[in-house]
Amino acid sequence: TQLLEQSPQFLSIQEGENLTVYCNSSSVFSSLQWYRQEPGEGPVLLVTVVTGGEVKKLKRLTFQFGDARKDSSLHITAAQPGDTGLYLCAGDTGGGADGLTFGKGTHLIIQP
Amino acid sequence: DAGVIQSPRHEVTEMGQEVTLRCKPISGHNSLFWYRQTMMRGLELLIYFNNNVPIDDSGMPEDRFSAKMPNASFSTLKIQPSEPRDSAVYFCASSSGTGWASKYFGPGTRLTVT
Q1: CB proximity list for B13: less than 8 A, separation 6 or greater
Q2: Mean pLDDT of chain B, nearest integer
Q3: Residue among A42, A99, A102 minimizing CB distance to B56
Q4: 8 Å CB contact of B99 and A92
Q5: Read out DSSP for A87-105?
């Protein structure tokens, strides 16, 4: 059973378009993180959200944590080829130095 | 800052051989994590250490896998004997603090078992 479901699995769009990817679960998370991973490299943390309903912006990226802290979305405005990569969400179900539970990710390709 | 260092970056070995993956966490970080990534299963936590002590190894697939952290600056993940289904990218990550503290991943070791 996949604890975190990410959708879509694959997305290919043209440069300049907007897009939203989703991360959903039936579990409640104390925090949720979004990572971006490029080929041949490890995931790199983009943002952490901890409060239900929280919205964080990182330049053209907008992250939202659901009110019930079970889901999250990532919206990219005016996508650029440099946004290409695997976007992973990861949830923390408790305190302590716990290992995160990752979704399988959304493979995003931005075509010039 | 050198970041998390992993070696080797690539490993090709034959079924039945012993494989040892190495990780040097970021200096000052007190938590270290080993993950495995495959297309089918995504990124899975294998084991994590806090202050060099294994805290949760429930993700280790079976007894063929073992991990050690003899000191704060070094950890190993060993597979003995290796099998083709162990082929994956293995990541080490470190963090400081607790809970949702930022995790920093290494570049990974791509393991191929033939």
Answers
A1: B19, B82, B111, B112, B113, B114
A2: 93
A3: A99
A4: yes
A5: EEEEEE-SSSSPPPEEP--
Are B77 and B60 in contact, with CB atoms under 8 Å apart?
no
Please give the structure tokens belonging to residue B83: 């099998």
One-letter identity of residue B47:
I
Nearest CA of chain A to the CA of B98: how many Å?
A: 4
In angstroms, rounded to a whole number, what is the distance separating the alpha carbons of residues A27 and A91? 9
**A65 alpha carbon, distance to own chain's centre:** 10
One-letter identity of residue B58: S
Bridge-based pairing state of the strands A106-111 and A10-14 = parallel
pLDDT digits (tens, 9 = 90+) for B39-83: 889 999 999 999 999 988 888 988 999 999 999 999 999 999 999
Does A102 sit within 8 Å of B43, measured CB to CB? yes
Tokens of A60: 């053209």
Phi and psi torsions of A13, nearest 5°: -135, 170
